[in-house]
Each structure stands twice: as structure tokens, then as C-alpha cells.
Write a structure and sequence with these properties.
single chain, mainly alpha, two-stranded antiparallel ribbon, 2 strands
Length: 207
Amino acid sequence: MASTSPYPAGSTFFDTLKRSFVDVPVEVGNGNAISTSEFLEAAESLTTLFDVLGSMAFNPVKSDMLGNVKKIRERQLACPAESENLQSLVLSELKAKKNNAAGGLLWLVRGLDFTAQALRKNTAKSTEELSASFRTAYGDTLKPHHNFMVKPIFSAAMSATPYRKDFYDKLGEDQEQVNARMEVWLSALEERVVILKTFLARPDLKI
């Protein structure tokens, strides 16, 4: 029987990403500085996961994240010498009494945290449907920061997730490979989200 997988034999969705969070440099000796260009590419790659979820309801989620990537990249292009890493980009922008990119990073990190928590909750509970994992993650990350107009839009997306089996089947034919690749990618995403959440929570940063 011919393969129906959209990926080459032996590969998964995670192998097709333009940039994985695994490949986003973190300078441990420089305050865990995270490289701007690679991080933005990895964030853009992550949004293709919402296409795999297969519902138009996730378009606002994807658009929101890409809009925040655009804000950060615009600052990077305007001030490249000060924007090699995300922390320097934010600090230099705030010093200039601006916060468009800093605000974009704050919201992008919230979106990435939501995605990471949803997938982590789902992989930790082998029988839980995606809708439950995504709904819980939304309540723990984005929902407290959304106004009454935005909450229904995102809540609708949480209810529009596919069945668990269908989602994982779309990530690749070999489920052992899917699980292994996802774990590596997800752990790298979580590590960078924690670094940025800690940085953005600094009391001296007024975003």
C-alpha cells in the first residue's frame, strides 16, 4: 500500500521545519543570550504546526504570533548592531523609550509558552484529547492577558482541535519517531521560553 504521509520516508513533521528550536543558539556565558535571527525563524516554523491542526479557527493564533515576529524583526533590521540577541534588542529599544518589539516579544513568548504547555500536557497524558490539553494551557498562559473580545476567538480554536490520533498521525507514520523528534524539539522550545520569561519578568523592564 502506498504511503499517504506528506513527509519523505523515515521523517516527520519536525524534520521539515526550516528551523528547530534545537538550532537556536543560547550563549550561556552571556546571560543566556538568545540569537535573534534563529529564534524568529524557529518561531515562524512553529506556526506551521497550527496548519497541521487543520482548522481555520487557529488562523488568529497563527496570525498573532507571526505579527509579533514581524515587530521584532523590524526592530532588528532598524538596529542590527543592537539586536544580535533578543535580550540586547529589548534593552536597547526600551533605552530609546520605545517598546513595540519588546511588547511583541512578550506576546510571542506567551504564545510559544501556550503551545509548549499544550503539547507537554498532551504528551504526558496518553489518553487525553488535544482539546483538553490546549484548553488547560490557554487558561494557564494567554487567557489571563486577553480581553473579553479576544477570549471567545481563542476559546473557539481550543475546541476545534482534531482528535488526538488524527493529529499524531499527521505528524508522521512512525509514532516512535514522532514522539522522539517532538520530545527533542519541545524540550528545546521549553528551555528558551523559560529563559525569556525570566528575562521579561525583570522588575527593571517596563514593557
